[in-house]
Structures are given as structure tokens and as C-alpha cells.
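Case study 2.
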Amino acid sequence: MRGTLFVLLAAAVSACGYSSKSADTEKVPLSEAPAVPGAADAAAPAGALAGPVLEKLDAPPYSYLKIKTSQGETWAAVPQTATATGAMVRVYNPMLMTKFDSKSLKRTFDEIYFGTLTPDGSDAAVSGAGAAGPADAAGAGANPHSGMPATETATVNVGKVEKATGPDAYTIAELFAKKDALTGKTVTVRGTVVKYNAQVMGKNWIHIQDGSGDAAKATNDVTITTMDETAKGKTITVRGVVKTSKDFGAGYKYAVIIEEAKITKP
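Prediction:
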């Protein structure tokens, strides 16, 4: 079932456009979320996670689906879904986690893939089990900042956002221009949320823009991972650690990403 490595994010992959305010014992601990490609954590090969649902276990905010695929039976975890047993599903941007311990279910999965049921993050089964994989979901050569499924298709119009204040404050353009010097350092950035994907690999994924940078060079949009919640269209200030050249595998690849972030104020 293992393939060469994605997303997340979604995935990371991306994806994934779900949110939950419930008490969550099912969040994948950050220490368990795959950080770099490895032999034990990988994306599924194309088409490997498509087929009928044999068994379903709900443990909000996830649904655990046992799927009969062309390569055998496997478990997948997706944002909670109404999809019933017998339905044909396809899991996009699947990221493998080994020896995953579900506290709510009181069981350990030797291998389980985290992903979403559709590339746009909607809650729907598919009408067939044809081959599909991360490349099909995001498109070959897609902008890595688009690697995670969007919660909405509507575009957020971002004007000029006022820069955050403080000695560690930067615009998004400055983050990319100074990324080598800033890697590993804590920064403060203010911007408008243009994409928000909740509970992917146990954390929330945010894309913000502030009107700076160059869209053609993908320096106008920065990805942030956080445990805090927000919403698309909100202008927020975040503080977190800069990481560069971060590759989660299967398309989740970022020249600059801000991790362990906190939303400090509007």
C-alpha cells in the first residue's frame, strides 16, 4: 500500500475544508504528523484509495472508513462524513500514518491514511472507483500553495493589509525575500485568510495574503499551521516559527511556511 511520497496536508495536504469545535481527542498529535518523506509515512499510490466502504467508525471530527481497494483492504480517516457502508468513495491526498493510536476508538491502526473524500473538500461519495491520486486532485505542476483542498471556491479579494507591528513583524513579501535569514525564527504577520482547511493531520491550515508579493512567483501567499480556528475572509495577525523548503510529500511543498502559530489578534 505504500507509495513514494506528498499534503496536507491535504496535506495536506492538502485538504479537508472541515471545522469542529467539539472536544477533540482524535486530533493527530503534531509530533505524529509526518514532517518529511520517509519509508514509514508515504502517500498512497494512484487509485489505491478508491472503492466501496466495508466498515465505518465515527469518532468526531473524523470518520474512519475501511475501504476495499484494488490492492486490498485499508483504513482511511476523513473529516466526519455521512457516507454509509457500501458507498463508493475515493480518498484524495492520502497521507500514511503508521501505528496511529485513536484514543476515542481505543485502538491502534497499524496503517491508516488521512485525507479527504473529494478534491474540493466536500462531503460526497463518488460514482465509481477509478484511479485517482494527488496529481489528479491538484493537477500536475500545480502551485504548492493550492495543494490542499479549498473549503470554498469563492475568491477572497485582498487589498492592502496593514503590516503587523513589532520588531519581528514582516509582510509576506519580506518573508519570502528574507526566508533564509528567518528560518527557525519566530515572526509576526498580518493578512487576510484566503483559504482555511480545518483538522488536517491534527491541525488547521491557513493561507493568508496581505497585498504584497508577486502572485506569478508565488510570493504573495504564505501557509500557516495552527491549532487556533479562523474563517476564510477574516483579517488576522499570527505569530509562529518560519520553516523553509518544507516538503510533506505528495504535493505539500512550501518554500516558506509558518508553523506552531498562534492567532494573536484581529
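The CA atoms of residues 205 and 225 lie 5 Å apart.
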